[in-house]
Design a protein that fits this description.
By secondary structure, the protein is mainly beta. The chain is about 5% helix and about 40% strand. β5 and β6 form a beta hairpin. The radius of gyration is 15 Å and the shape is globular. The termini are close together.
C-alpha cells in the first residue's frame, strides 16, 4: 500500500529515535533518564524496524486538523531482544492485532492551521504505521 505523504528521501533525514540504556532497555520517545536511572548510551532508529500491533482503535471525533476517522495503534518493536512500544496513526483500518507494520514518514500528520497553536510553534511531521 502506498502512502501519498511518504517520501523515501525524507526517511533518511528523519529518524524515529528510541534511546538505549546501559541495561539494554529502550524508551520511545527518548528520555534523559532510563528505567534504571542511567543516561542513554545509544540511539536506535525505529524506522529501520517493523513492529506488531498490540491493540488499535478508530477515533471518529479526532482533534482539529486531523482527518477522520483517525486510526490509531499501540505497536511493539523488538530490537535485539528488547521491546519498546509506540503509539501512532495507522495508514488504514484494514489491520488486526498481531499484524506486522512498518513506520512510514509523513511530512504533515495534521493541518497546522486548524488548531489554537501557532503553526511555527511545533513540528507537524512524524510517522504512521503501515501494514507490511
Amino acid at each position: 500500500m502506498s502512502d501519498p505523504d511518504h517520501d523515501a528521501d525524507a526517511d533518511s533525514a528523519h529518524a524515529m529515535e528510541a534511546a538505549r540504556y546501559a541495561d539494554g532497555s529502550l524508551t520511545y520517545p527518548p528520555h534523559p533518564i532510563g528505567p534504571d536511572g542511567s543516561e542513554p548510551v545509544d540511539r536506535v532508529d525505529l524506522s529501520e524496524h517493523t513492529a506488531r500491533i498490540v491493540t488499535w482503535t478508530t477515533s471518529t471525533a479526532p482533534p482539529p486538523g486531523v482527518e477522520g476517522p483517525n486510526h490509531l495503534a499501540i505497536v511493539e518493536f523488538d530490537v535485539d531482544g528488547e521491546s519498546v512500544r509506540a503509539l501512532g496513526q495507522l495508514t488504514t483500518d484494514d489491520v488486526a492485532i498481531g499484524d506486522e507494520v512498518a513506520p512510514v514518514y509523513a511530512e504533515q500528520l495534521r493541518d497546522p492551521e486548524a488548531g489554537i497553536r501557532e503553526p511555527e510553534s511545533q513540528d507537524w511531521d512524524g510517522y504512521r504505521f503501515e501494514p507490511v
